[in-house]
Amino acid sequence: MAPKFMLKLTFKLVMLGKVLFRKMQLLCLLLLLFYLCRAQTPTCPRKCHCDLAGRVQCYRVGEVPKEIAKTTRGIYISHGKIKHLQVTDISSMSALEEFVLTWSGTESVENNTFKALDALRTLELRKNKLRHIPTLLPGSLEVLKLGDNLISVVHESHFEGLQKLRVLEIQSNVILALSFSTLSSLSSLQSLTLDGNNMEYVSGTFYLPNLKYLSMENNKLQSFSGGFFISLCNLLFLNLNGNLLTSTPSDLPASLLTLKLERNQLKMLKFGDMRQMAHLSELFLSENQLSSLEGVEFLSSLTRLELSGNKLQIIPSRLPVTLQKFDCSNNLIERIKAQDFRELHSLKHFFLDNNVVATFEDGALQNCTQLSNLALEQNLLSSIPLRLPHTLARLDLKGNSIQRIKEQELKNLRHLQVLNLRNNNISTIDHSLWKYLPRLRYLYLDSNPWNCTCEFLKTRRVLTAKGIDVKGGKCKAPSESQGESWMSSRKVLHLCAHNNLYSLEEGEEIGKNTSVDNPSSLRVNMDDYYDYEIY
Ligand SMILES: *[C@@H]1O[C@H](CO)[C@@H](O)[C@H](O)[C@H]1NC(C)=O
Ligand SMILES: *[C@@H]1O[C@H](CO)[C@@H](O)[C@H](O)[C@H]1NC(C)=O
Ligand SMILES: *[C@@H]1O[C@H](CO)[C@@H](O)[C@H](O)[C@H]1NC(C)=O
Ligand SMILES: *[C@@H]1O[C@H](CO)[C@@H](O)[C@H](O)[C@H]1NC(C)=O
Ligand SMILES: *[C@@H]1O[C@H](CO)[C@@H](O)[C@H](O)[C@H]1NC(C)=O
What we know:
Keywords: Leucine-rich repeat, Repeat, Signal
Signal peptide: 1-39
Organism: Podarcis muralis
Shape: flat
CATH architecture of the domain at 266-381 and 389-404: Alpha-Beta Horseshoe
Bound molecules: 2-acetamido-2-deoxy-beta-D-glucopyranose
Pfam families: LRR_8 (PF13855)
InterPro entries: Leu-rich_rpt (IPR001611), Leu-rich_rpt_typical-subtyp (IPR003591), LRR_dom_sf (IPR032675), SLRP (IPR050333)
Radius of gyration: 34 Å
């Protein structure tokens, strides 16, 4: 026996050896290839990666590597330590189209460093410690990104000759005041970002006919001089979020599609003098102190209106008929009237959560025949509004004071997929109601004072059979079922079957686990399901 065994073992070892040997061969081959490849690009510096398209990427270098080929077209350095960028570093690389130096603690750039690079199109020096905009930039430049530095002054001479510049970013610097006339030479400029500078003041006459995107979010702007925007005749997007504005700027260009004025100090708005904004599609006014909004009807192309976090007590009258998304959450709205929604045939998303709505006129949204999301949570409703549009896919009524659910309230909702009734005052639901909701997938019923009678088990059976994900909550009554989880409790089932008050169906034998109401078996996070975009 023993010699045979030894033979087998030896054989196995030999085989193993052969396999290992082959693997080693492969490894050697790979290593050889690697070195051959490197040898083909002998100039690629240490800590850098060079590719065939003439791009060099370096990481954690202490200087711009000397060995970079003169024919290089793109240099990308990040997380290096390059305090001063010098003329000698790159000025002879005449093919250079893109130079990116970020996160490298760079404090200064020597005069003329970029001057001779007449192929340079993109210069990005974000996330450094620059105090000045580099001087004498080449006229070929199209994109200049200087965000997250310590630049405090913008001077006309910085931009002289940059007639091709399309994109200028100087966000997160320390520019306190800006005269836009310093930018007047940038005749091709399309996009200007000045966010997060603590700017208190912008002024000047300027003419940037190609500017489409202007962002000055998170500054300290209180107002604009009259006519400031007038020359921006092609502006599409204006972001003034997070400033100290008490009124909308006058003379906004008629070309605007998106206007952002969130987090300012607006109190009252009249759009009568905004008649010219016939193209405006999105208006963001959340988190101001608005108590009234007049003349919204003049914004005749508006599709999105954001008014969350203001002090509105009534829905603004004559909302534009083009409206698709309307967010009026976190206000002081008390009442929903049919007349406000009569013409809103395009409305798809309506958010009215966190108000004090106690009255909701019957059929108030009936004409909104595209409405798919209605958020009414955290209000004072005592019943589900009647005659909601049948197109609704999700209806959120969490945190109201609803006590009963009636047939006619749900009858029409044949597209409803998500129904949230969590945290109301409902004790019982008739099992026959669920037939009206053939598409229901998620149902939230927890935090209600459920009365788990034996009749109630029918509801449970129907919901289980339909495969709906139910968050059911706990029974409050009768006393023997108190605290039981009503979708899965075997005790409730047992009590009723025992007293012949409930007949078990096939597959419903006592002891069988139902999968619903068991958080780990659910497909979605059982916290509220807020992904309204999916419909
Ligand atoms: C760099 O140029 C600026 C103006 O273009 C000039 O004021 C400054 O003295 C120059 N610095 C050096 C070191 O030449
Ligand atoms: C629905 O729209 C029609 C036509 O615009 C109008 O006559 C009717 O009063 C509207 N109904 C409601 C409930 O607003
Ligand atoms: C909940 O409903 C009961 C009657 O079922 C009522 O007595 C109670 O006041 C209601 N509670 C609230 C907070 O509405
Ligand atoms: C629960 O329902 C039963 C039967 O309808 C009723 O008799 C009982 O009073 C209800 N209990 C509570 C606490 O509402
Ligand atoms: C029910 O589920 C629990 C835990 O999920 C498990 O421990 C138990 O064995 C299951 N009972 C039956 C009868 O499948």
